[in-house]
Amino acid sequence: MTQPLIPIDQCPIQIEDDRTGTNVETLKRAFADNLFYLQGKYESLATQDDFYMALAYTLRDRLLSRWLKTTKTYMEKDVKVVYYLSAEFLMGRHMGNSLINLHLYDRVRQAVEESGLDLDEILEHEPDPGLGNGGLGRLAACFVDSLATLEIPAVGYGIRYEFGIFTQAIRDGWQAEVPDKWLRFGNPWEIAHPDQAVEVKLGGHTEMYHNEKGEYKVRWIPANRVVGIPYDTPVPGYDTNTVNPLRLWRAEASDDFNFDAFNAGNYDGAVAEKMRSETISKVLYPNDNTPQGKQLRLEQQFFFVSCSLQDIIRTHLLRHPSLHNLHDTAAIQLNDTHPAVAIAEMMRLLMDEHEMDWNTAWRVTQKTFSYTNHTLLPEALEKWSVGLFEYLLPRHLEIIYEINRRFLEDVKRWYPGDDNLISRLSLIDESGEKYVRMANLACVGSHAVNGVAALHTQLLKQDTLRDFYRLWPGKFINKTNGVTPRRWILMCNPKLAELYNSKIGEGWLKDLSQLKQLEKYVDDPDFCQQWREIKLHNKRQLAQYIWEHNGIEVDPHSMFDIQVKRIHEYKRQHLNLLHIIALYNQIKQNPDQHIVPCTFIFGGKAAPGYFMAKLIIKLTNSVADVINHDPDVRGRLKIVFLNNFNVSLGQRIYPAADLSEQVSTAGKEASGTGNMKFAMNGAMTIGTLDGANIEIREEAGEENFFLFGLTAQEVADTKAKGYNPRDYYSSNPSLKAVIDRIAAGYFSHGDKELFKPLVDSLMYHDQYMLFADYQAYVDCHKQVSKTYSDQDKWTRMSILNALRMAKFSSDRTIREYCNEIWNVQPVPIEMEEYSQENA
Ligand code: H53
């Protein structure tokens, strides 16, 4: 008779084994073992990649017992789980994070060093998984970190793109896109679960039929079927046993796919079609804040939504006989409208596949879902043509029409005779070609709708979603974004973390408000000196990186003035450039005048099809070329464009900043999260009253923030009156000189055509009103320079900024979501310790 396997956590004798043990000797042995058995290499022949893989497996092993215990606890306790649906998770590297969250940094460093290797080199070897574009995807990553740290049962659901965000190269000053083959050497962090694969239908038509009870039912006869295979990556909490899964779906053709075509002899045609369905999870669309109405994109959205909802339902039915109480075990968050088709898919699954009646299904759906809006830009609100929808998701279109019919019936009863209101609220835009409005679908199908900063939520209520707010004021709620202090302070700025630890211990990492205790040191010369030394150290490291990657020598004592984020006209990187050119003009007029030496650093990707954004990159590099080489400048201004800005580059950049540029047109940036990372690392902000800048200023204190520019209301009023950029141009000699220099071809070897589209846009039809804010921005920079010259004052302001950023920990944000939207509680995971070393 065979003996059943004893689960590791129930073994009668707990031993320090090579998969769980954490003393240095065990770690060394496990590392060597993985190198031999998993990489198949002798140490003498192993590459950096082999070392990285062997170490990654060593760490993953140490996450597994916690991971399995977490899942088991959730099942046994039948807890309510948060399901975070997001088309993007911009996780950044896993290894450093695992070392931190497992408290293994020092021991692993020692084990690696005693093996004759360098841990930093190994860490650098990990590809940065770029399964997201920018703020929205990185927010999802910070949220899963906080969920695990706060011991909240949660699953992140998304797409396992084979190609993440492209690698940005700069050729002749222009952006070039290189495919990101991040899985080339395999991904040691994920575990595939083909046993939990699900099938997703696409296309075809619907038909009526009688079920056994003699009721009329609808069924969907699809044209295609695709299989979703889940890949799970462990997300460990900091200083807890909780390890939640990030579950990403890969598309594969189903085995019975096009069986007829195979049999009919059309083998290659059938294989070609098979490949087509596998392209669904091939590549991330590289647009941030600007949707592209491509069929494949809708297929991606539906694919991961359908896989995830089927998985959620399966999990629920393991413990409950019916789906009537799904909202008691599941809170599903829609990260923007990308997964909003989930509202219709949930209705379909409940009614067509689980025999629920409409009213019950609708009640369950509304109680289960909530929706986060991330943008006010009208062009970024997703809509899908009804024709495309019908072609891909015929059953869902029927359901959406029925949701709409019932919804508009209600509205007509509440507001009789208001046809304009009806057409604005309708889930279908019928003003021209018909479109499905995804934000409207998400609002109607959710019990809560939130914006991501106070101003953003206020503008949603007043403007973008005002009609919905009128119907259901109680649905609308603000959840100001946050970022994880584990990655964005401890991991990226170890010296700062050490300083904090030396004064108040490590408690601040789970309760950032503890940093306030350090305010008593703001006038302590020793503390201030240490503060400056840390910043200088970080700046030196970035200067070294710039030297190695751009061949530009920058002075670590100059002010590092940094703008890193996606390139977009509303973010106004070109306003920053106008100011730099203004400074240059001053130097050209009077080369001897005093000027605070400054290094202007830019980074960010442009959507490949966004011409104006690409032209802004070209202009940045062209201005850099001229100014960096002009002898009159004498090195007092340096401009650097760092290519391929991503999470790991961000970790080098934020800690090295003196000044953080947050200069979007007021009312355009929903929140921003880079602004928080800079401030937490002691950078001062120069910014507009936009997004979370407003709250950063409130927290830091008005006197510790460089504010300029029109308010959102003033922007709206100026627009209403008719914004005329030429008035500013003709009445402001400094602005005129800047624009004339660009237009004259000064930065383009005399070519007056190159930057004409940018100049014309600014001069004649600029929606983002750069000229209206130009003078205020230049004046504010004068204030910045003056303050920077007084290093004692600057240090004080920098310290207060960093210490007052508790509000912007994603732990605070997630706690609010848990209490006010999801109604979920922490579930601690009890583990027996394997050895003293683990304690
Ligand atoms: O989401 C961030 C915000 C930021 C906003 C960004 C965003 C995307 O990255 C992509 C699409 C979208 O609609 C919004 O632009 O302001 O901080 C996280 O909320």
Structure report:
The protein is of the alpha/beta class. The strands form five sheets. Strands 1, 2, 5, 6, 9, 10, 11, 12, 16 and 17 form a ten-stranded mixed beta sheet that branches. A six-stranded parallel beta sheet has the order 20-19-18-21-22-23, with helices on both faces. A three-stranded antiparallel beta sheet has the order 13-15-14. Helix 23 (611-629) links the parallel strand 19 and strand 20 (637-642). Helix 11 packs antiparallel against helix 12 (358-368) and helix 11 (342-353) packs across helix 14 (394-414). The longest helix is centred in the first third of the chain and has 30 residues, at 48-77. It starts with 23 loop residues before the first helix and ends in a 17-residue tail after the last helix. Bound molecules: (1S)-1,5-anhydro-1-(2,5-dihydroxyphenyl)-D-glucitol. The site of (1S)-1,5-anhydro-1-(2,5-dihydroxyphenyl)-D-glucitol has 19 residues, from helix 6. (1S)-1,5-anhydro-1-(2,5-dihydroxyphenyl)-D-glucitol binds at residues 133-136, 139, 288-289, 336, 374-375, 380, 452, 481, 669-673, 691.
Descriptors:
transferase, Glycg_phsphrylas, 10-stranded mixed sheet, glycosyltransferase, 47% helix, 839 residues, 6-stranded parallel sheet, alpha/beta, binds (1S)-1,5-anhydro-1-(2,5-dihydroxyphenyl)-D-glucitol, 14% strand, globular, 33 helices, carbohydrate metabolism
> Into which percentage range does the β-strand content fall?
5-15%
Q: Total strand count, please? A: 23
> Which regions are unreliable across 5 or more consecutive residues at pLDDT < 50?
834-839
Which hetero compounds are present in the coordinates? (1S)-1,5-anhydro-1-(2,5-dihydroxyphenyl)-D-glucitol
Distance between the termini: 39 Å
Q: Rough shape?
A: globular
Radius of gyration: 28 Å
Largest sheet report: 10 strands, mixed
Helix content: 40-55%
SS class: alpha/beta
Count of helical regions: 33
Average pLDDT number: 95
